């Protein structure tokens, strides 16, 4: 940004509204997913732009996407990481900067996960990352103050959420658009590159 919180034009991506579905029914019933259009100036999808930047800086070609993982069957030995642009009080000025924190997976519920780590307002919509595998197993939705001392996120395998993500992956106009030409990539959601984004309805 230019310091005003507004992304530069080359980093702006319009939502493909026709592909968006979501739910706003509190903890465990809060999710949203859809596709993004290519940038009007560069013609690139956000994940492609991010991947190119990562490669130029010596990073991995895996940058910009997460594999959708399996929710663990118990909490023992399992940790969660949340990375995102939560709000931050900088000498009285509210700003957003990328921050990350990991902590223990506290409980596994039918439609949501609870985990003990630090988040702030604006983290909603961040992937719930299983620390041990690096896979996305949910979407962060609620802070700990209102959920009994732990943060919460909707499970990636919640039936309606999972069904819509599957539809997003399978309803592209070509295999290249959906799976980079590799049919075995069906369980890998390039949240940006494949134009798919997740969010929390709660933030609205």
From TrEMBL:
Origin species: Ditylum brightwellii
Family: Belongs to the peptidase S1B family.
Molecular function, one GO term: serine-type peptidase activity
Alphabetical list of SUPFAM superfamilies matching this protein: Trypsin-like serine proteases
UniProt name for this protein: Serine protease
Enzyme Commission number(s) from the entry: 3.4.21.-
Gene3D superfamilies attached to this UniProt entry: Trypsin-like serine proteases (2.40.10.10)
Organism phylogeny: Eukaryota, Sar, Stramenopiles, Ochrophyta, Bacillariophyta
InterPro entries noted in UniProt: Peptidase_S1_PA, Peptidase_S1_PA_chymotrypsin, Peptidase_S1B
GO BP terms, alphabetized: proteolysis
Keywords on record: Hydrolase, Protease, Serine protease, Signal, Virulence
């Amino acid at each position: 940004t230019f310091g005003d919180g507004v992304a530069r034009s080359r980093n702006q991506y319009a939502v493909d509204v026709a592909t968006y579905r979501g739910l706003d029914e509190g903890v465990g019933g809060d999710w949203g997913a859809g596709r993004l259009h290519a940038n009007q100036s560069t013609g690139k999808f956000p994940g492609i732009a991010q991947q190119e930047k990562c490669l130029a800086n010596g990073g991995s070609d895996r940058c910009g996407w997460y594999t959708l993982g399996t929710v663990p069957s118990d909490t023992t030995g399992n940790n969660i990481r949340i990375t995102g642009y939560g709000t931050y009080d900088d000498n009285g000025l509210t700003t957003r900067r990328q921050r990350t924190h990991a902590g223990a997976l506290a409980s596994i519920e039918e439609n949501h996960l609870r985990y003990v780590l630090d988040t702030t307002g604006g983290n909603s919509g961040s992937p719930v990352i299983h620390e041990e595998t690096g896979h996305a197993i949910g979407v962060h939705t609620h802070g700990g103050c209102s959920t009994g001392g732990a943060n919460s996120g909707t499970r990636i395998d919640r039936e309606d959420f999972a069904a819509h993500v599957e539809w997003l992956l399978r309803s592209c106009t070509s295999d290249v658009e959906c799976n980079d030409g590799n049919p075995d990539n069906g369980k890998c959601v390039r949240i940006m590159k494949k134009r798919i984004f997740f969010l929390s309805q709660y933030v609205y």
